[in-house]
Amino acid sequence: KLLLYWKANSQRIEYSAFVEKLYTLHEKEIVQIHYDTVVRFSEQCLSNYLLKHVFVDKHYIRISDMITCCFDTHYQRKMISALDAISHVFKSTAVFDCVRKEVCLCWEKIKIANPSIFQNYVKAFHRLNPTESLIYLQALIGEVEINTDLPSIDQLKSEKNNRYINDDVLEVLCSLAYTDQEDTAFDLLFDYFLKHQNKLMRFFSAIDQYFGIDKDSYPSRYALQIRLFEKFQEYSDNWKNEAICFLFLAVAPEFLKLIYSPHEVNRKNGITIYTIQLVMNPDLLRLRHMIWDALLQVEHPHKTALICDLLQHYGNGYSDEQKEIIYAEATKVVE
User: Fold this and answer.
1) Longest Cα pair distance anywhere in the chain, in angstroms?
2) Least buried of 34, 85, 133, 326, by fewest C-beta within 10 Å?
3) Burial category of 133 from C-beta neighbours within 10 Å (exposed 0-12, middle 13-18, buried 19 and up)
4) Mapping DSSP to helix (H, G, I), strand (E, B) and coil, where does residue 326 land?
């Protein structure tokens, strides 16, 4: 980082003086020098400030130039981390727009000049260019060979705890559901599943991980979860499509729990686990009643077995706060 900074300011300071200052900072433990070549700031806040100062405030180095130089190298992860820091740490619309503009500037260049790495580029920066990302993913999905080999019910039960996705297209689609292109992202998600029914377990894991109940669900009035199940209904052909119904039956129990323990990965790869105990409110009941209504309408050979399994584990670990929810749901189902 600092060698680039010196090159941008070489008219102001000699390289030898620049290096001498670096070793002074190293002695004071402000920076770390590795192999007499790489300099790293010990203090993350100062490092973030320098990134913003060089790339955004003064434009000593164009972000698009850094992307061109670094994306197809072993510096890719560090570069993406740096841009993530610039975009989110300072929480400025101007900074975010600057980064987005530079990323979009490279979009077509990399797509045309280096198509072999373009999918990785979309994976890294899809949230900054959601419309073009969806256009690209739609083309990829269009080329997918149809596979309608659904897993067996025994396979579903045995693999439910193996929460792996391992599918870049699927993960990017789920991530794009959190943008203003939510509806298109959901449509492509279901289109992709209907062509890749043999990967039902990956779709189950992705839906659970990306759209499950978390700390943002209540403030957002469960809007994303409600939209997800509206899409299930839309693609179900009145709950007669076998593949959609099977995926729904797999997913539904995860959204009918009363206590959740989601986790978040922070920027330093640490994990925060927290507990959410649901409380009665109209938006939550709308979501849960929607799911129960669909469970009663679904037509699928494994419906009875999967609903019995759901009821067997329903309400595990509930507390007095959830009794009102249980009563409201029991009344709904009996009706």
Assistant:
1) 82
2) 34
3) buried
4) helix
* CA 185 – CA 191 distance, rounded (Å): 10
Q: Report CA-CA distances (Å) from 304 to 293, 307, 322.
A: 15, 5, 25
Q: Which two tokens stand for residue 269?
A: 């790869």
CB hemisphere CA count around 113 (13 angstroms): 8
pLDDT averaged per 10 residues, the chain (length 335): 48 71 76 75 72 87 91 90 84 90 95 93 96 97 96 91 91 96 97 97 96 94 97 97 97 95 72 87 96 95 93 86 89 75
Sorted by sequence, the CB contacts under 8 Å of residue 136 that are 6+ apart come out as 118, 122
pTM of structure: 0.85
Using the CB atoms, write b or e for 36-53: b if 16+ within 10 Å: eeebebeeeeebbbebbe
Angstrom distance (rounded) from CA 115 to CA 88: 28
Do residues 50 and 44 lie in contact, with contact meaning Cβ atoms separated by under 8 Å?
no
Q: Is residue 170 helix, strand or coil?
A: helix
Q: What are phi and psi of 241, to 5 degrees?
A: -75, 115
Q: CA 244 to CA 294: how far, in whole Å?
A: 12
Burial class from Cβ neighbours inside 10 Å (0-12, 13-18, 19+) for residue 33 reads middle
